[in-house]
Structures are given as C-alpha cells and as structure tokens.
Design brief:
- The protein has about 350 residues and is α+β, with helices and mostly antiparallel strands.
- The strands form 3 sheets. A 5-stranded antiparallel beta sheet has the order 7-3-10-9-8, sandwiched between helices.
- Strand 1 and strand 2 form a beta hairpin.
C-alpha cells in the first residue's frame, strides 16, 4: 500500500517519538518537534487517516496516537533510518570481543551479555543443536584403577565430561587403543547417528573382555544420549523493568514465565528464515500469548557457511529497532569470524 510521502513522514515521526517517550503522540507534538512543514490541523487529519488504515491506534478519546503492530511492521520494513553505532558502543563491543575465550559456552554467554548491555533489552541465545553436531574427538583418560574420565568434543566446540566407574582394573594402554578406535568409528558422525550397531562394531574390533569393555561403551553411549538440546542463554532479563509497560506486575509475570519455558524459547528462535540476516517478529505476529506485546529481533550465527545458532533480542513493540538491528549485525559478524577461527572453518560469506 502506497501511503504517500506525507503520511509516511508523519507515521515515522510518531513511531520515533513513541519509541523514545512511551507516551501517546499528538499532532501538536509532531508539529513542534519535527520540521515537516505542516500545520497541526493537517497532521491531525493525516493521523486520523493512518488510524483508519490500521497503522495507528488511539488508547483514549482525548489522547494522542500510538503505533499498531501494522504500523511497526511498515516502519521496520520501509521507514526507519539505519542506526549508526557510536564509537563508545563499538569500542565496548571490540573490547569484549578481544577477550580470550576458552570455552564455547563462555563465548556465547558473553555475547548475550554484551548485546543486552548495548540494547538494554533481554537477550536470548540458542546454542548449536548438540544432537545434530558431529563428534570431533573422544578421549578416555585413566584417573585411577577404578575411574576413567570420558571427554566428548563436538564440531561446534561443545565439551562434555563424564566419570566412568569400573569394577576391574584398566590400564592406560587399553584406554589409548580404545580411544583410537572410538575416534575412528565415531568421529564425523552426528550425535543422533551414534547407535547400538556402531557401539557393537567397536566391541567386535576390540575383542576384549566384555566385563571391562561393555561398561565403558555403555557409558559412552549414555553420555552421548544425555546431551541436552534445550540449554539457552539469557542476558538482561531484568531490563524489561526499565520500561513503563512492565510496571504492571501481571505483564511482568507473564514475560518471566515465558522465559522459563525453554522449549517455547527454542521454538521461537528456530522460527526465523535462515536465508535472512535479520528476522523481526512484531507483537501479535508471534504465536506466544505471553509476549504479544513484545517484538523479537533475531540473527543467525554460523561456523563457516553453516548456520548453527540464533541470537534474539526481546523488548516492547516500541523498541529501538534500528539500534537493535545494527548491534546484532555487528556482533553476529564478529561472532561468525571468531567461531570460524576457533573451529577451523573458512567463512566466505562474512567479511570484516
């Protein structure tokens, strides 16, 4: 729908002001704050048209207008100006990015916190789906005569440690040989592909005492099956209290209740289009009642050219979309580069 330049400028001004103040915006305010070259009477008439077309709403008869979800959709798709990150914000991100990180989960958690600090909204990060990750390395390490440490490392940097108790004495040479065979048979397979027949192949090749071998192989199998895909990182969860919309305790309880539903968060963050750098879900466009008054901005991150996870920012529908989009684009690009360096992949789709 072509609104015409005048209506578009008025709608943009109203949404910009409402994002900043959270107060309904009137025609006089627009005439004073924005150099549109229009009288307040003309602006008032155009606002009435925009309300009739579904882009604005009037909470009270005597109040100004506020954007509708449809108005926000037009805003983020066509009207909002690109946000220029300040040097202070860029330097803050770069400082955090330069910190040496040793574990994947610490790296992701740090990005979650950086984004929530910069945007002042709640950040939700979906890590790589572990059961779809490939096994990169397995290692069995002798702790003492009756205890073995199993280390599993996936292609996405996930590390799982598990202590195995054995009733019979095991020597280091046996564990070294078993580790080599485990890597030969299981390396490169996804966690979902490791099944009983694969374990039986290893048993057949070892030709060892089953009383020693089978407890170890059973623990390997159980440890792989126990890897959980529902872990989600949250950052800035209390930021929602910064917004007057959530002074209402019932709305706040609904919001925090939703954050506790890991499966719902996983569904939400998995709903974006992988071919798009940024996905924006506004208000009632999402299917979860608890966050009908919120918008979600999502960006996928990659190792090499493979999308492995999602970063989402959740805030009121009047969020600063342009700033959130710029921050996510900047941080996702650097996260992609860092993950590719850490895990030895060449990312040809992202450039500094």
């Amino acid at each position: 729908m072509d609104l015409g330049e005048r209506k578009r400028r008025i709608l943009q001004a109203i949404i910009d002001d409402y994002i900043t103040t959270a107060d309904p915006v009137g025609s006089r305010t627009i005439a004073k704050r924005h150099d549109l070259g229009l009288s307040s009477a003309t602006i008032r008439n155009e606002m009435a048209d925009l309300e009739e077309m579904g882009f604005l709403a009037q909470p009270h008869t005597s109040a100004g207008r506020i954007p509708s979800d449809r108005g926000y959709r037009l805003y983020v798709d066509q009207l909002m100006n690109r946000y220029r990150l300040t040097m202070a914000e860029i330097n803050r991100m770069r400082h955090a990015l330069e910190l040496r990180m040793q574990e994947f989960d610490r790296l992701i958690e740090q990005y979650s916190n950086i984004i929530s600090q910069i945007t002042q909204y709640t950040t939700v990060v979906l890590p790589p789906q572990m059961k779809k990750s490939a096994i990169k390395h397995l290692q069995l390490v002798l702790i003492d005569q009756n205890h073995i440490l199993l280390i599993i490392i996936t292609s996405t940097g996930f590390v799982k440690n598990h202590t195995i108790r054995v009733t019979q004495k095991v020597d280091g040479d046996f564990l070294s040989r078993l580790s080599l065979i485990l890597n030969d048979k299981l390396s490169g397979l996804t966690i979902e592909e490791i099944n009983l027949p694969k374990i039986q192949e290893i048993q057949k090749e070892m030709c060892s005492n089953e009383e020693i071998l089978m407890p170890i192989l059973n623990h390997v199998s159980d440890s792989v099956k126990d890897i959980d895909d529902t872990h989600i990182f949250l950052g800035g969860t209390t930021n929602i209290f910064n917004f007057p919309e959530y002074k209402d305790i019932e709305r706040a309880k609904e919001f925090f209740g939703f954050l506790e539903q890991k499966k719902d968060l996983q569904t939400l963050l998995s709903s974006g289009d992988n071919t798009r750098k940024i996905n924006i879900i506004i208000g009632e466009e999402n299917k979860f009642f608890e966050i009908k008054d919120c918008s979600v901005v999502m960006s996928h991150y990659s190792i090499g050219n493979k999308v492995v996870g999602t970063i989402g920012v959740i805030g009121p529908t009047r969020m600063e979309y342009a700033k959130v989009v710029s921050s996510l684009e900047y941080l996702t690009q650097h996260l992609n580069c860092m993950l590719s360096q850490l895990y030895g992949e060449s990312n040809t789709s992202e450039k500094d």
